[in-house]
Write a structure and sequence with these properties.
Layout: E1 13-14, E2 17-18, H1 25-42, H2 45-59, H3 66-80
Length: 81
């Protein structure tokens, strides 16, 4: 059982690939939020969405559910833009 709704505090393993922790996802998520606006201004919408999603999955801020949250985020951005 992983803590829900909280950023992870240790490394995670994904499909036999090791994410490079420990790092503080809060710092990366602060930069990620700023990047969303930048990407939406600089790139066409689908290019921005691809970059935003790739960055979110690279940060992998949660122990579980990162893919689901990333897909939800993509759809939300498409709806509001």
């Amino acid at each position: 059982p992983y803590p829900t709704g909280e950023f992870r505090t240790s490394g995670v393993e994904i499909l036999n690939a090791r994410i490079t922790p420990p790092f503080d996802p809060r710092v990366w998520m602060d930069m990620f939020v700023q990047y969303i606006d930048y990407a939406l201004e600089k790139f066409p919408i689908y290019g921005a969405i691809a970059r935003i999603h790739t960055l979110f999955e690279s940060i992998h801020p949660f122990y579980d559910g990162n893919g689901r949250v990333g897909r939800l985020l993509m759809n939300f951005i498409l709806i509001v833009n």
